[in-house]
Amino acid sequence: MKPRILKIDPQNIDHDLLKQGVETIHNRGLVAFPTETVYGLGANALDARAAAGIFEAKKRPLDDPLIVHISEKEDLYRLAKNISPLAEKLMSRFWPGPLTIILEKTDLVPDIVTTGLGTVAVRMPSGSIAKKFISLAGVPIAAPSANLFGRPSPTSAKHVVNDLTGRIDIVFDGGKTKIGVESTVVEFDQDKTIVLRPGGISVEELRSIVGEVKVLDEKAELVSSPGKYPEHYSPEAKVVVISRDSRQVEKALLTLWEMKSYGLRVGVMAKQEHMEKYKNFDAQVLGPGSDGRTCATRLFHILREFDEKNVDVIVAEAIKEDGLGLAVMNRLRKASGTVS
Ligand code: TXA
Ligand code: MG
Question: Would you give the DSSP letter of residue 332?
């Protein structure tokens, strides 16, 4: 059965529609909702049976912990304890917003949410629908990205419906999400901030507040972060990344002609400044190669669009890895399966 799709204007939120979702949450149901990053698939985080439904709907492995979303700072102290001044500093600067913080959990958080870990991931989203929905629900909301496990995260309600029809109760359609990649996930090692997943808050922004920030390299990420699997964010098509070296672009063009001559359907995800080079191919603009923020808003959307066209291969140009460009390249490398 199709989920109930409720259209909500983020500038002028209809509370009666949100209340339908609240009722579903209180009945252990699943509600997909937009955040400023991507759409999340929400359930009552304090109810183990409700949270179990998330794993089932997404086909998510039971060792991949969920993020718990809150709307008020006070809620944090029910979920987490021994919170360091460093964590407080980051929260006061970046919450509400795309930063997820790993903290020691309290007994209130069911084990299934954290997959048995002693820590819990907490985030306070800034998206207006997410904020209001969590606050009306009156409970923290456990929510991973609202895609089938391993697929690109959803940046529109259509993406959610394509992946999860028949598996969830309600989708709030609040249009396209603003940031387009997921939140940055950080943990702490004494006075050091460690980025487990680059995302909507850049490493440069974190450094400007806390000084020392370590970014796990993507191989280490696989070993030390729970539930990290080598191939992730993957469309059906094979993804190939072209490095930023201009000779690689010329080489890629030859390969593209070759693939075309074999009858392969190819999609190109190109930097704006190179679009002209790909005029003989089905090319989509990711954004200017030095503007990670713009590229982030389009990344998952383009990957899914090429899937709808049934392309066999997606050839993606690398962009500059500063700002949100780091998150974009992290997702692209994972989609291409080159991190293993
Ligand atoms: O922007 C976002 O973060 C979106 C929206 C919906 O909020 N959510 C999201 O959730 O991307 P998900 O489940 O797709 O990614 C959560 C990440 C996973 O990589 C998981 O391994 C990590 O957070 N994580 C969760 N709890 C953790 C913990 N206790 N320790 C370390 N990593 C954790
Ligand atoms: Mg996800």
Answer: H
User: Distance, CA 179 to ligand 1 centroid (Å)?
Assistant: 16
Number of CB atoms found within 10 A of residue 305's CB: 16
User: For residue 313, which phi and psi values (nearest 5 degrees)?
Assistant: -135, 135
pLDDT digits (tens, 9 = 90+) for 150-202: 999 999 999 999 999 999 999 999 999 999 999 999 999 988 999 999 999 99
96 preceded by cis ω (within 30°)? yes
Instruction: Tell me, using a 6 A CB cutoff, whether residue 105 lines ligand 1.
Output: no
Mean per-residue pLDDT of the chain: 95
pLDDT higher than 80, residue 220: no
Ligand 1 within 6 A of 160 CB? no
Residues 6 or more apart in contact with residue 101 via CB below 8 angstroms: 87, 90, 91, 121, 122, 123, 186, 187
Q: What residue owns the CA closest to ligand 1's atom 10?
A: 144
The full set of domains in the chain, from first to last, is: 4-215 (3.90.870.10), 238-336 (3.40.50.11030)
Both tokens assigned to 95: 């919450």
Least trusted range by pLDDT, from 20-34, 42-56, 194-208, 233-247:
233-247
The strand pairing partners of 188, in sequence order, are: 193
Cβ 40 under 6 angstroms from ligand 1: yes
What average pLDDT does the segment 78-107 reach? Answer: 98
Q: What percent of the chain has pLDDT over 70?
A: 96
Question: Ligand 1: does its nearest atom lie under 6 Å from the Cβ of 119?
Answer: yes
Ligand 2 geometric centre to CA of 259 (Å)? 31
Closest Cα to atom 13 of ligand 1: 144
Atom index in ligand 1 nearest the CA of residue 114 equals 29
Asked whether 150 lines ligand 1 (CB < 6 A), one says no
- Ligand 1 near 252 CB (within 6 A): no
